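Our preliminary data section would be incomplete without showing what the modeling component actually yields. Below, a chain of 434 amino acids is followed by its predicted structure, encoded as tokens that our downstream tools consume directly.
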Amino acid sequence: MSPSTDKPKSSGIKVIIVGAGFAGLTAAIECHRKGHEALVLESFAELKVLGDIISFGPNAGRIFERWPGVPEQLDPICIKTKGLTYKSYLGDYLFYQSWDTEKSYGKAYNGHRGEIHEIVYNHALSLGVEIRLGQKITEYFEDEKEAGVVSNGQRIVGDIVLAADGVRSTGRTLVLGYEDKPKSSGYAIYRAWFDSARIANNPMTKYLVENGDTHSAWLGPDIHFLAASIKDGKDFSWVCTHKDEADVEEGWQEPGSIEDALKVLEGWDPIVHEIVKATPFLVDWKLVYRDPMPTWISPKGRIALIGDAAHPFLPTSVQGASQAMEDGATVAVCLALSGKSKVPEALRAFEKIRYGRVLAAQKTGETTRDTWHKADFDKIKENPESLKLVREAWLMDHDAEAHAYKVYPETIALLEVDKEPIVEAAQLRMVEVA
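Predicted structure:
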């Protein structure tokens, strides 16, 4: 049966979703699967295949695999490596981290952001999800019976609104009651994706692409450099996280300079320099931070923040996109179990189910970055595996949909007796975001 003809029974719940990124599209697709009507409002006038590498762990892979035809489209464009090779910034081999131990968790999907997004976007359209592009949201509103937005001057009303419009979300102001501007973290990332011909034609770098896909990490004081070849070595991507004190008010994403990147990497392995020199274009992406939100839910319980709008992630967590997808799957289940008459209860249950898990997942990004950047590189050869990327079962071997069905009843019971903020301590720490 094709996706477009597999129409579930209607729940009568209308969900307005602001943003057509991975959080918004996952929410729309999962809401459709549960019988809710989803309307997606996206600010971009057209969606282009842009970006560079993005990672979806097995916890997100389970969600993809419930969407007919999507895994088959993703598989040819995703990286196929068996592990990650670690080197010091001087080029000394440290160790190899195999992914074999993680096979029981399920399949991960790592590839070009724009290409993966296009597949998910088209799948949503094939289901009959309505997606409106070129939408400018100027207002959010809610009362005890409904919620909505004003988009391009039009008042659009539904049962709930999901703000999935990223780290610059206008919905955050409504939920918080004030504007929380991002602040500089002191770090930035150079990012690049390009055809690997120049890498293949250089005797120093051709080993990275000539035998299919590879994944390598160079680690040094307060800098890490990750490089990957994809599509059987035809494409190449690299990212470099480094210290940066630029004013984030000037822009978070700007064209990068090859010369500046080489200066940052001065004294590093010549292979890294050759990779950078082969790069036709790169982006300078500022990492900023926001204070964590005490709640993702609006005062009347009909507007919720999801994905980066609610909880931005450090790239070193390798979980930002996966957790955004988990949000979409979870909120759709909660709405299905609450029914139309209790949607505020569903959103509060969604937050209760997700908040602690997300906070713990965010922490893994901080831990990995500090482990890589603050290592004693004079002694690291004594225990190189201390640099290993931690990928634990609680995070990777998780089924957000099944978990939501399992814990929803007990979560509702807890909400009846627990009216306090979910994690008061969250207000004491900061979360960095890309």
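The mean pLDDT is 89. The longest strand covers residues 183-195. Preliminary results of this kind motivate Aim 1 of the renewal.
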